[in-house]
Amino acid sequence: MSQLVEYERRGAVAHLTLNAPGSLNALSDAMLAALKGRLEALAEESAVKAVVLKGAGKAFCAGHDLKEMQAARTAEDGGAGYFADLFARCSEVMQLIPALPQPVIAEVHGIATAAGCQLVASCDMAVAAEGTRFGVNGVNIGLFCSTPMVALTRNVPRKVAFEMLTTGEFIEAARAREVGLVNRVVPAAELSAEAARLAETVAAKLSVAVKIGKRAFYEQLPLTLAEAYDHTAAVMVENMLHRDTNEGICAFIEKRKPDWA
């Protein structure tokens, strides 16, 4: 029996696949629970140095499951309790990604819409296939993408985000790269190889340094300039005192490969 979020380990890289192609990998209650479980488990897997997240079938992710959401309207409160719980659960899953010690790379094809676009924006990096379309298009059906907006506005310029949110128009992969939503755009036939190549490059670095650096990257973002320098200076001291960092610097000076434990 197939799982909603499939897991495959290739060396030091974990590959997660949203596996509900019939619904364009919509973030149903079950999908959110499965993704949360996978991410929480990855946080404990020290042998995994990087993660690739992709979708099965024709699309990366089409956002929330609208049929499931509409069914909740039959409750006595008109669905208010369910909707509050749903958006809280989705927000929790999105926040697990930057909190992971490993960098997470979205491998995107087809479409990434609404909460699916939010998922891309929540990942640390993204590689997209040519022709992929991105949108926060809830406004087209009367639902402003307010929670997807949080991740989107932390990736792209303010006016670009506002235009996407208020017009519901899609942007193509090339434009997504131009505005900072994705890192790389490649032909569809090369997508998986390129995402894996990026993940393997990251996975080959000293994992403790990447872990320390990823944590500091997100910690310093909301700080003032002076606070950010104070914080990251302390982080660099922590990094410098690590045994493998000392070995890496010695190896560089001595022109040899580091003997990292």
UniProtKB/TrEMBL annotation:
Superkingdom field:
Bacteria
Q: Where are the transmembrane segments?
A: none
Is Lipid metabolism there in the keyword field?
yes
Q: Name one GO molecular function term.
A: hydro-lyase activity
**InterPro entries on file:** ClpP/crotonase-like_dom_sf, Enoyl-CoA_hydra/iso, Enoyl-CoA_hydra_C, Mitochondrial_ECH-domain
Record bears the keyword GTP-binding = no
Query: Keywords assigned by UniProt?
Result: Fatty acid metabolism, Lipid metabolism, Transit peptide
BP terms from Gene Ontology: fatty acid metabolic process
Family from the record: Belongs to the enoyl-CoA hydratase/isomerase family.
Q: What does this protein do?
A: May play a role in fatty acid biosynthesis and insulin sensitivity.
Q: What is this protein called?
A: Enoyl-CoA hydratase domain-containing protein 3, mitochondrial
